[in-house]
Amino acid sequence: MCGIVGYIGKKPAFSILLSGLKRLEYRGYDSYGFCVLNQQNEPFLYKKVGKISEAEVELSNLKVNGRVGIAHTRWATTGAVTEANAHPHFDCKKDIFLVHNGIIENYREIKEKLIKEGHKFTSETDTEVVVHLIEKYFQGNLEEAVRKALKEVRGTYGIAVISKKDPEKIVAARLSSPLILGINQDEFLVASDPAAIITHTRQVINLDDNEIAVLRPDNFFILKEKPLTTIEWTPEEAEKGGYPHFMLKEIMEEPEAIENAIRGRLIPEEGSVKLGGLINVSEKLREINRLILVACGTAFHAARVGEYMLEEYAGIPTEVDIGSEFRYRKPIVDKKTAAIFVSQSGETADTLAALREMKEKGILTIGITNVVGSTQSRETDAGVYTRSGPEIAVASTKAFLGQLATLAMLTVYLGRQKEMGLVMGKRIISELAKIPDLARNVLKSAPEFAETSSHLTPRSTLSNSAIEKLAEKYKDFKNFWFIGRKYNQPIALEGALKLKEISYLHAEGVAGGELKHGPLALIDENFPTIAICPSDSVYEKMISNIQEIKARGGLVIAIATEGNEEIKKLVDDVIYIPKTLEMLTPMLSVIPLHFFAYCLAVLLEKDVDKPRNLAKSCTTE
Length: 621
Ligand code: G6P
Prior knowledge:
Elements: E1 3-9, H1 13-25, E2 31-37, E3 43-49, H2 56-60, E4 68-74, E5 89-90, E6 96-104, H3 107-116, H4 128-137, H5 142-150, E7 155-163, E8 170-175, E9 180-184, E10 187-191, E11 203-206, E12 212-215, E13 220-222, E14 229-230, H6 235-239, H7 246-252, H8 254-262, E15 266-267, E16 272-273, H9 282-287, E17 290-295, H10 297-314, E18 318-322, H11 323-326, E19 337-343, H12 349-360, E20 364-369, H13 375-379, E21 382-385, H14 398-417, H15 422-443, H16 466-474, E22 479-484, H17 489-503, E23 506-511, E24 529-532, H18 539-551, E25 556-561, E26 573-577, H19 586-603
Parallel strand pairs: 17-18, 17-19, 19-20, 20-21, 22-23, 22-24, 24-25, 25-26
Antiparallel strand pairs: 1-4, 1-10, 2-3, 2-4, 5-6, 6-7, 7-8, 8-12, 9-10, 9-11, 11-14, 12-13, 15-16
Bound molecules: 6-O-phosphono-alpha-D-glucopyranose.
């Protein structure tokens, strides 16, 4: 989620690090920092909140000597957006400096232990424990200390470390977080993303999980032999991870968004979840007997799924409204009501206005937000970050998955405080833990795209996947219905919204049961319907709706559960998703819909990442 660059060689490191960071910055990082060791091995440490582009003059005036350094651009997840929380982080003596991308799950335990041993911490981040662990084990050889430190951490990391006590060296390591080494004549780089080094070298080595690399000014080694690869991406492609559009990159990151949201938060043996951001209000939450969820756009659809989850499994009466309506409705609330605000950006004016209205009434306010330090996260009483990473495409995709996973966790959290038993808690948690892999399976229907970030050749826009073929088949239609029931009714709305946002086609989402009350009048052979009908408690009802459409000559594409062969006889096309708990199906059923909208928009040659008339964050009411 953050960006890392490191350089060691014969040239001044600072300008190379700076240009590397600038190449990553378009993603909207919130703070950055450098550490360069000079000829006397003294560190030059510089950290700042804001954008590099806002400080270009100041940065270009800095006199920084040194041929080895590391740099980082941060997207806050643990700890606010402050200079102290920006990387590089350092040990007690300011001898060792480290940049990190990922999440250290067990940082609280490690931090407590290290504090008892006398370590002094200067930030709120999870990252800082790693550099103190390295300090603890350091006996003159940096890679050895890194190796020992990493044995104690749980979670994900891509790190680059330097030390004035073992200079002329960068030690890099990774686990489930991308890291590549750039190899050039007499110089070596390390980066989390090819975009950061592509203008410098195209010869790279992909570091694998659990590998440690040591870069020196004139050589490098990894703990095993690795083949050299050539990056074929253009710098523009590299910014998008080799994908033609940010939206596709972000759809491909949907499994990871779920994984990041749940990482370190599930307690399987207790059938429960740990949500650090709610600790301060946990007693108040016990008293709550009514919830109001407020959101806009795609986040509103996540909130609607949350409504079904919270009522069915947490047993709490829940209502959902869009920000722009809620505040004018004169809502009736009392002290036992809590209001939950769902927003990717945390800056949507309509949602914020509703939040302020509720605060004035003295209601407990909770935020579900992606952007750390956003207005929403500052103004709510408590909250949970979705940790989806920066989302660039205007149409929200991966952030939606982070919101759904967070709402599922919130359901277990509140449910376990109330009537939900251990068995049910365990069941939801164990199924939720499987969702990232099931989501990966769904994306396998896009084989060209299903590679990991180690794939360094350009990824073509269209391959031959089932969903792309469907998009090709339906690209000349001008109108689409999306239907679903219960948990997948909001997903029908989301599928329709995504299609209209980026393809400019007319699409509407409607509850299956509502068809007969009006929409059926529009059905004919020119108005196809996408019916979300996994094998769940409303499956039979959905089949009746599909029959109503077929009887009127309409075309139907079904999103159905794997193994349901019967449905093929009834509909024109089927997209299969794996089986899971009914309340979690939206996290799988929405993926083909996002992908379908993307493929249609590409075929229709629309500006996928920046659709006309729309903005990523609507900061005016
Ligand atoms: C805009 C974006 C949507 C987004 C909505 C809510 O309309 O184009 O993609 O869903 O705002 O944004 P939020 O940041 O509050 O989730």
